[in-house]
Amino acid sequence: MTPNTSPFLVELNHLTFGYGERVILRDIAFGVPRGKVTALMGVSGGGKTTVLRLIGGQYRAQKGQVLFDGQDVTTMHQTELYAARRRMGMLFQFGALFTDMTVFDNVAFPLREHTDLPEDLIRDIVLMKLDAVGLRGARDLRPSEISGGMSRRVALARAIALDPDLIMYDEPFAGLDPISLGTAAQLIRRLNDSLGITSLVVSHDVKETFEIADHVVVLANGGVVAQGSPAELMASTDPLIHQFVHALSDGPVPFHYPAPSVAEDFGGRTV
Fold first, then answer.
1. What pTM value is reported for the model?
2. Which CATH number do you get for residue 31?
């Protein structure tokens, strides 16, 4: 097989996806640079998590391509898809640990599921991954016995257990206190650089995300409305981007969801 020389590990080409007649993403196109941290941002409901599911093959696009290392995920058969997924790590929102397993067994799960490695080697790998996130000493605890921030780090250790090429993070900072949030952000950056992987981070936290991201893609209104470095987006004069990165209540993104007029809803009665 000819090596893929594209600078992007993931590429979305003219991709359209929706639920029935409701279009979520319309003709979007962007790339995730190899070896970099890319942030996928935008208002709630803009399709960010949907993009992660399209890359992982849980959803299939109606139109366009989702290329992972040059191979189109949208046309993969089950065996090909499973092989591609083994090269992807996923950090789910709030961790999604198995509550009846210890920290050790949570991290060991993908190794036992997808490899034939002997248990002594699995043990060494798990302890190395836990050490990388600072939790080797918590190996025998259960998720109910550790904090939310620690749970997120255990989930990250599980996500890197198979040494993936790509790690996708779905709101990794949600619900964390300031210390845990800062720790999680720097851990994403450090692991990306030390392991030589590619990271795609879905987040609403502008400050922390901009501090670790190399590239930012902003989704809104079903499409890509801006992309560039954090500095470029902070300096943007586009009203929507300005409203988003500076957390302004007034701007193109309205407070009210589209609805009939007050007169129509209340039959002319004064409210």
1. 0.84
2. 3.40.50.300
